[in-house]
Amino acid sequence: MRTLHFDHQYIQSAMSISAPDKLLLSYTRAMMGFLLFQPAPKHILMVGLGGGSLVKYCYRHFPSTRITVLELHAEVIALRDHFMIPADDQRLEIIQADAAVYMRDQPEGIADVIMLDGFSADGPASELGTSDFYRACLHTLAPQGVLVSNLWDRPTSMAPAIADALLETDWRIWWCRTDDSYNYIAFFVKGNDAGVFRSMLFNRAQKLDQRFDLELAKLTPSFQLVNHFSKET
Question: Does Transferase show up as a keyword for this record (predicted)?
Answer without folding.
Answer: yes
